[in-house]
Amino acid sequence: MSSTANRTVNLATYIFTRLRQLGVGSVHGVPGDYTLRALDFLKPAGLCWIGNCNELNAGYAADGYARVKGISALFTTYGVGELSALNAIAGSYAEYAPVVHIVGTAARKAYRSKAMVHHSLGDGDLRVYSDIYKRFTVAQASLFEPKTAPKLVDAALEQCVKESRPVYLELPSDMVGVHVPESPLERPLNITPPSNIPKEEDSLVDAILDCIYSSKQPYILVDGLVAPDGITDEVNEFARATGFPTFGLTFGGGIIDGTLPNYHGVHAGKFGSLDFTPYTDSADLALLFGPLLSDTNTQGWSAVPRKDITIAFRRKSIEIGASTSHCLHIKSFMRTLLGRLNTTKLPTQNPKIASLPSVRKLATALPPIEPSSPIDQDSFYLRISSFFRPKDIIVCANGTPLVGGRDFILPPNTKLINSAIWLSVGHMLPATQGIALAQQELGEGGRTIFFEGDGSFQATAQELSTIIRYKLNAYIFIVNNDGYTFERLIHGLNAEYNDVANWQYLKAPELFGATDGSYVVQTHEVRTWDDLQYILGNEEFQNGKGLKLVNVRMDREDVTKNFRAALKLAGQQLMAEP
Amino acid sequence: MSSTANRTVNLATYIFTRLRQLGVGSVHGVPGDYTLRALDFLKPAGLCWIGNCNELNAGYAADGYARVKGISALFTTYGVGELSALNAIAGSYAEYAPVVHIVGTAARKAYRSKAMVHHSLGDGDLRVYSDIYKRFTVAQASLFEPKTAPKLVDAALEQCVKESRPVYLELPSDMVGVHVPESPLERPLNITPPSNIPKEEDSLVDAILDCIYSSKQPYILVDGLVAPDGITDEVNEFARATGFPTFGLTFGGGIIDGTLPNYHGVHAGKFGSLDFTPYTDSADLALLFGPLLSDTNTQGWSAVPRKDITIAFRRKSIEIGASTSHCLHIKSFMRTLLGRLNTTKLPTQNPKIASLPSVRKLATALPPIEPSSPIDQDSFYLRISSFFRPKDIIVCANGTPLVGGRDFILPPNTKLINSAIWLSVGHMLPATQGIALAQQELGEGGRTIFFEGDGSFQATAQELSTIIRYKLNAYIFIVNNDGYTFERLIHGLNAEYNDVANWQYLKAPELFGATDGSYVVQTHEVRTWDDLQYILGNEEFQNGKGLKLVNVRMDREDVTKNFRAALKLAGQQLMAEP
């Protein structure tokens, strides 16, 4: 009999212990009276509390943390807290970030009596918000009964990891202290990726290998769901083993080791810095990993291969061509695929490969900088790539950095974090706080390097103070182009609505409390290549400690060359009569 | 035949013209690619654009603006924008602020093809968000057909005003430019408060007057929905005419002219600075206007009169006692009630009235300040009341200012804006931006004076930059008590989760771009009564021009005396075993 057989723990401790077991080190959130009591049990369960400035930001931070650690937790109050965070959770849902959202609600008697409690709509319906969350989470645990609560918690947490999507725990304030058995905590949650029926898996592997062996002009196209699908290593190994021309989609721009000779860069149809379409348009096989094929991630689907030549590898299915789909778990499948791959049977190198451009060649071909010239979007992302090191995590906010980041050349074991479909303004600064924290907890070295436009920065700027408060290490490059440049080039080049307030960005650390000498803050204004080279070459700057805030001035109408055409097209579509 | 009979306008212009007709002068929001084209038509329709830093803040700002002007408009993009704003709209719904939320969505063909467009969840269901908004708005206009669009717009806008609650307009980007007839714009929208059937109204008035005439110990209790119900003047007149002891609830603390001799202050049961219960507990008639009886607004319902002695006057009904309810429109009813009130029949003054305390007496009885003493919550709100002038709008954020603001003594024609049930952290700073703008547009003079705790300030701080950007006039008193004091006193007095980051608040204007000499910014640090007196006495400070940011330091555990007991009780309830 287990030593804990008769012991109990309170429900809050039960939840927090489970989170700890899953690898959560810190819980993000904002306190509220319905959550206060539960928060007392965080530290004893081995968790840290990260108090964000508001709940939307806390949600974004949890999203970022989850993208690094594969799990995160957000704790908000009822109504106001959870609704504020909803946009972040919806984004985590859309982009497969596994966030456990715990909501501290009113005591159960308020539900029973339909009381007009604060944060309710005042009409006695206290389940409004939990109902909404059903649409944005893959499991909901309504913790109203001590008997069922532990099982509901366990089931929700397992779903969170298995589906890599948010789940929702509804914790009434009077359920925090109820006693539940401790013994289930001895059984680890079941989060191992499921295996497939070997015979089915083998036969599908063989079928796909046949397609691969008999192809003449194949390519690999890698998108960002490869990371939550847990097959980053496998896809890299596959790209390395086959030697096939390999491209990323924007969301998947950081999956493949950028130094791999057969990795050419991000495929953005006709709108990228490089044009791979002479090869991809005439290809006879596209191996598409972890796709999230939104309009923005594929330049209006122009970078999506034709269905009839595509094998799409998804988390729980593999689609061959336009009409065949197999339900299968990808992790196990990929291990088998790699195990059975016979490289001697691979097609001989297609002659067109020789003329394929690559982002590395593009960088090498850059002219030397003119020291006093202003920084331009076309070469900024290429040039700054030399600053990156293995294990760094690079974060690109929406807007011009998302586009520019396609040109990064990433060392092995780096991560690129960006958005594929959600594209919420301001998402990535709080996410960077969560990412920097996750990276610190992992303790594997590497730096957090973030690029964000000025308009985005304003949306969630106060989370810089959370970075400072918890003494996290981060680089923040503000790509300051004086407003919503991305939108200017779609429509309204000089329209007032594309302007933003005239902030003095480098004053931010002062407001946000970086006055403690124990935490190093560097701020830099960068207008020219010379300015940039000077700071990048500085050892103190390179070491990654503390906060480095860099205000990089760029022209207000500058975006990477070919992307200008994409934005123009988007604008034309916007103006088209119906 | 009207001159516009055959003329058309585009749908965006139609909407904006209607908004203008209703008194909207400015539209709040954040641009997004789905909204850009429509924004071109704002200015030509006579509207200004206020670009907020994020959509939640824009929603809060629109909420504040609506509370002053009786209508406001918010324009956000699809998905990310509307979900970010949801918490603000839900608050407007709960507290009856009439906000028109226009959402620019993808073109109609994306709906038809279930395309994986950006800001969607990626599953082809593009109506997820509009479905959610049904729960938080009183009308939804899905503008997918040119033929029906104008009528849907008109109906929604009429509902917005009639119900004083948010409505939702879903505007696909390809519907912006469709042509609709111009002629309906000549017919004003029907927003006059409906009248009642005279006979029914008269008989109810008589019945209620009978109750009033035959009462022995009556009182008037005024709550905040009196303002959206449009009967502020009538209730003031009624209080003046009857001379009955009159109290506010916290949310209604600004409805009654604070200089009215029979207005005693805010009734907060046993937890206010004044205890009116010796009178109210033995009263035989409570006339309750505009009630929104949440737990927080009534101190756990302890300030709510017994049902059997209550007549509750609501927007569309009057409830007499525990079981009788009459459907009736309040505005017309109140005019009739006032018209038929015979003051000679009123009960003689109850002797208990003489011993009723009042907030004015409390202020008079205050000892002279000790110049070098720190500012305390118990007397700050009383003492600063002398700074207020007629036509000022006073705004109290949630937390200690909401509670302290109960002690304000308000001159005639001032407004007090606070929250009754929603109590969302950070709500009121963006709301203050909207309020200051609305006040400027009304052009009736008066100043916007805002009190907010430091924790709240951090939640939405960037909207200070919107105040600066549009050169709005506002006072912001940061009640700086080093964290979430309100919550500390509920639970976790020294808990880390009740701390906030250590900001240097007075640096905010610098970061936020107040470098333009054309806009005057004053910042002040206030630690003692002397400091406070010095600035309040300064003419430059009094004039209300520009931004006056005052960092008022208070003790981290200070709240008004009797309210401490309320928070302690809340904490005990939180800790009670179920």
What spatial order of strands do you see in the largest sheet of chain A?
11-10-9-12-13-14-15
Calculate Rg of chain A over CA atoms. Answer: 25 Å
Give the quaternary arrangement of the chains. Answer: homodimer
Number of strands of chain A: 21
Q: Number of helical segments of chain A?
A: 22
The total domain count of chain A is: 3
Q: How does the overall form of chain A come out from the CA principal axes?
A: globular
Binding site for Mg(2+) (chains A, B): 454, 481, 483
Domain Thiamine pyrophosphate enzyme N-terminal TPP-binding (chains A, B): 10-112
InterPro entries (chains A, B): DHS-like_NAD/FAD-binding_dom, PDC/IPDC-like, THDP-binding, Thiamin_PyroP_enz_cen_dom, Thiamin_PyroP_enz_TPP-bd_dom, TPP_enzyme_TPP-bd, TPP_PDC_IPDC, TPP_PYR_PDC_IPDC-like
Catalytic activity (chains A, B): a 2-oxocarboxylate + H(+) = an aldehyde + CO2
